Predict the structure of HTH-type transcriptional regulator BetI.
Amino acid sequence: MPKVGMKAIRQAQLIHATLTVIDRVGLADASLALIAREAGVSTGIVSHYFGDKNGLLDACMRQILLDLYRAVEHHRSVAADDPQAQIRAIIDGNFDDSQIAGPVLKTWLAFWSSSLHQPDLQRLQRINDRRLHSNLTAQFARALPIDAARAAGASMAALIDGLWLRMTLAPQPMAQGLLDARQLCYQNLALWLSGPAT
């Protein structure tokens, strides 16, 4: 009989192993056998908890998205309750340490690519996109007319995603890329809040 709590422990162990293997060999070569070996379990255990590789990738993305949600909520909870501070907190949450660790970055890229062909992953991607845009728009709407707030939300969401992708692929040190990405987002935010866009 399995120990109480073993399921959660095993699942976390296998998700961590998956991130590690994707970081090392890429998604295409991240076989269940390699993941099982990394976790120190049999492939049967992986199949038992996740079914197949797609189920495991889905679980990994759900964990990363949960970590992203928690990071954004943490940054927002310690920020002042004004639109600029709250938007900066959303920016900071999206570039949080939990989201820029090497294995997570490569899994995000694999997720984005795979979501083009897998409906379950595509649905997760849409939820994440809508949450980011909605949160940004709601904060911009506290300072701008609604049409401008929607445009500002869409602009900032696209900037966050674009900078994140460029930072991931760039050869420069991660710390500098992170600093530059945040600064560009802050500058864009200041432009939106300083007056009407032309």
Observations:
- The domain at 62-194 is CATH 1.10.357.10 (Tetracycline Repressor; domain 2).
